[in-house]
Design goal:
The protein is mainly α. It folds into two domains: about 90 residues, Large-conductance mechanosensitive channel, MscL, domain 1 (Non-ribosomal Peptide Synthetase Peptidyl Carrier Protein, Chain A, Orthogonal Bundle), CATH 1.10.1200; about 30 residues, no CATH class. It has four helices and four strands; from the N terminus they run H-H-E-H-E-H-E-E. A two-stranded antiparallel ribbon has the order 1-2. Strands 3-4 form a two-stranded antiparallel ribbon. Strand 3 and strand 4 form a beta hairpin. Helix 2 packs across helix 4. The chain is elongated and about 100 Å long.
Length: about 150
């Protein structure tokens, strides 16, 4: 049983999948940082100094009554809240990851199509005298009756 598991685990697909998951997790962390540290601050600044991470609605106040200056203060007080700012950040992160995956898959599909479609050998050539398309093996042009060089 151990031998079968080892064969299964060492197959190319399983190893490739494991590498993909690890790289995907690292990529997700990078995208999360990109969204929260690079993209959202300027957007928040343009919208009047809004910090999306601190956008929330209190459903039930905590031990200390609100208003709360930040989401961290509300959570520390034990308030029940809907954190829609964090949700907006997550949606933007998802869109960036989805777009990146789309670009990768698109590139892979293009490479596969190029592999599948071999370059077809030309079947015609141009007559040097009348510029008509003639079969590649022709030695005499059927249109102008000129004698063509072989080869």
């Amino acid at each position: 049983m151990f031998k079968e598991f080892k064969e299964f685990a060492m197959r190319g697909n399983v190893v490739d999948m494991a590498v993909g998951i690890i790289i995907g997790a690292a990529f997700g962390t990078i995208v999360k940082s990109l969204v929260s540290d690079i993209i959202m601050p300027p957007i928040g600044l343009l919208l009047g100094n809004v910090d999306f991470a601190n956008l929330f609605v209190v459903l039930k106040p905590g031990a200390t009554a609100g208003p709360y200056a930040s989401l961290a203060d509300a959570q520390a007080a034990g308030a029940v809240s809907i954190n829609y700012g964090a949700f907006i950040n997550t949606i933007i992160s998802f869109i960036i990851v989805a777009f990146a995956v789309f670009l990768v898959i698109r590139g892979i599909n293009r490479m596969q199509r190029q592999k599948e479609e071999p370059v077809a050998e030309p079947t015609t050539k141009t007559c040097p005298f009348c510029q008509s398309a003639i079969p590649i093996k022709a030695t005499k042009c059927p249109f102008c009756t000129s004698q063509l060089k072989e080869g």
